[in-house]
Amino acid sequence: MKFGPDVQITRRCFENILKIYVNIDQQIQGFNVDIPLGMSRTPFQEICDIFKTYCNTKNFFLPSHLDIVTQCINVEILIPLFKYYLPKLFNVEMTFVMPIIEVADNANHNTDIIQKSSTKKKENKLILEEWKQMLYNISISDESRSDVFQDYFREFIAKLPTS
Q1: What tens digit of pLDDT does each residue of 72-99 get?
Q2: Are 69 and 134 in contact (CB under 8 A)?
Q3: Is residue 1 part of a domain?
């Protein structure tokens, strides 16, 4: 069974995977470990690979996800957003090339589950306006955000044309 990238279930699955990955990132930060306590390497790697599969397929990041990722220090979450998707959306220089990974095609990782599609121009304009508003509302010096997030955010904002 394949799911289209523009189907609600696919977007909700990405959001759930993103929340899980961010939660794992926070657990790793809190306990200063490589994988979360109580989780073996295999399920942890599965979550990472599923996230990367979504990122390789389409930009599933929405402006509402900014609130989710503000505490992240994991560059595997922040780089696709700030060095690929947002620069592509805002038509500024991209410093990151997709795909993130080539996932082995086996029973556990089928990269063709999510069909690729092109985003419509009208949809892009609406998304761009939502992102502009969300980015405008973020304070660069908000101390509730991780330093790593702040660095990527500042770097991206500096690339935007001033007009």
Answers
A1: 999 999 999 999 999 999 999 888 888 7
A2: no
A3: no
